Amino acid sequence: MQFLYGDRELWIGVNDLLTTEVEVIVNSANSELTHSRGLAAQILAAAGDELANQSAQLIREYGSIESGMSVYTTAGHLPYKAVIHAVGPIMGEGDEQHKIEQAVSRSLLLCETNDWHSIAFPPISTDFFNVPVEICAQAFFRAITHFWDARQESAVEKILICLTNENFRSFFDAFREDAIGEPAEQTISITPKESVGYIALDEEELNEIDDEIADWFK
Hints:
Leucine Aminopeptidase, subunit E, domain 1
């Protein structure tokens, strides 16, 4: 699902992070940057030893990375300019939504600083760290809208949030709910076209979402 935020694009959909056509991808990392399971392990396997070596070097120099922080390494063999490692919270440590919001904001700031124009995120902390998808969605909405609201011009022109069939609906509903409760300063609008094959939902589900979006932007 594509949204326009001024002249900037936000995509929310079911997609494989490792096949997205962006300049930078985000890894939902742990504090030691070990990349030992789940999506992090897939990224490491595809990127190769250079990513692992740079991650280890960051830990040697700075110690464990706190929740809410983001750092970046080479993308190795992956076709990206970098991999940003966003360290999200473990459910139960407290202030989970704010920490995800910080991790997203700092990832976007790294893009701004390095003049990277497009970025793809996974739903940070929702897998092994057990943060509910709804909390993650609300954090993403606030981080993205606040980041773009603060910048009339931004290097970050396109943001993708890559979800699964299992968590798309929960994420979208929570994102929508937060948007209604806290409208952004700039106009957000749905484009008239759909991206064929990007969202793996049946026609009835897509029509239902389209109706909700029409109500959202009235």
